[in-house]
């Protein structure tokens, strides 16, 4: 782990998180993007711009992409790349003031190096550097045990399961139960902690999965498309995050 870089990231996350919490008492200047439930606020833009400035000031040769397009156009994964989601779960941020997160993924030549997920309302920072374990607020994480799909909760959108997208209904019927948070970071965190055995989404953008992919790679947990193919970190994709003990079972049911 690059400790100097790690400490910078923690400082950036806490500064951005404090700004988000303070902003809940002010006008968020909410706009619709593609629908009434797909929102962007001034804080999405301000937080992304803040990370872009800080990263470029500290590491001018690094590439940076983010959800709101305030960063830069990236066409190649060569070199060091940061992938930012300034507020994952913006609708929750606006309507509930909780269940939202900041996510940062750090990659080099297309391979995950480190991932950070900051559950702002709970004050919990999940981080992992590949090969060095997973931590919550600096304390090593020991996930709850997962043995089988039939004993596991799963995370996903009920509509995807009920419309049998990618034969996902077979997974839903085999699992113990379904949860949905409206925030990909929360689905990923549930799998990281062992509170759920699987998180499935029919489409995530790179900023939705990059941090989680890095953290779960550090854990030795599988992340892929539902057909088993690897993810392209510059492309949107259906994604399955899973505990190793149920990954193959889920893939077989979906394929």
Automatic annotation (TrEMBL):
What CDD domains does the record point to?
Answer: IMPase_like (cd01637)
Q: Where is the signal peptide?
A: none
Q: Name one Pfam family in it.
A: Inositol_P
> Which GO molecular function terms does the record list?
inositol monophosphate 1-phosphatase activity; metal ion binding
Question: Source organism lineage?
Answer: Bacteria, Bacillati, Bacillota, Bacilli, Lactobacillales
What are the transmembrane regions? none
Q: Which positions in this protein are listed as binding Mg(2+)?
A: 67, 85, 87-88, 208
Q: Which UniProt keyword terms apply here? A: Hydrolase, Magnesium, Metal-binding
Q: Which GO terms describe its biological process?
A: inositol metabolic process; signal transduction
- Which cofactors are reported in the record for this sequence? Mg(2+)
Query: Under what name is this protein listed?
Result: Inositol monophosphatase
């Amino acid at each position: 782990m690059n400790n100097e870089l790690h400490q910078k990231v923690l400082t950036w996350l806490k500064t951005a998180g404090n700004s988000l919490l303070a902003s809940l008492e002010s006008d968020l200047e909410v706009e619709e993007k593609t629908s009434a439930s797909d929102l962007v606020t001034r804080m999405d833009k301000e937080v992304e711009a803040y990370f872009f400035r800080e990263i470029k000031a500290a590491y001018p040769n690094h590439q940076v992409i983010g959800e709101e397009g305030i960063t830069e156009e990236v066409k190649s994964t060569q070199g060091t790349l940061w992938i930012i989601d300034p507020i994952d779960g913006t609708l929750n941020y606006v309507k509930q003031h909780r269940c939202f997160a900041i996510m940062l993924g750090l990659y080099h030549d297309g391979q995950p190096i480190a991932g950070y997920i900051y559950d702002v309302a709970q004050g919990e920072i999940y981080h992992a550097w590949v090969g060095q374990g997973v931590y919550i607020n600096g304390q090593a994480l020991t996930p709850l045990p997962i043995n089988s799909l039939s004993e596991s909760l799963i995370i996903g959108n009920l509509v995807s399961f009920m419309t049998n997208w990618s034969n996902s209904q077979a997974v839903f019927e085999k699992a113990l139960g379904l949860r949905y948070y409206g925030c990909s970071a929360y689905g990923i965190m549930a799998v990281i902690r062992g509170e759920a055995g699987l998180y499935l989404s029919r489409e995530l953008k790179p900023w939705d999965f990059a941090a989680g992919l890095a953290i779960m790679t550090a854990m030795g947990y599988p992340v892929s498309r539902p057909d088993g193919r690897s993810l392209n970190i510059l492309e949107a994709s259906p994604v399955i995050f899973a505990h190793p003990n149920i990954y193959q079972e889920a893939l077989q049911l979906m394929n």
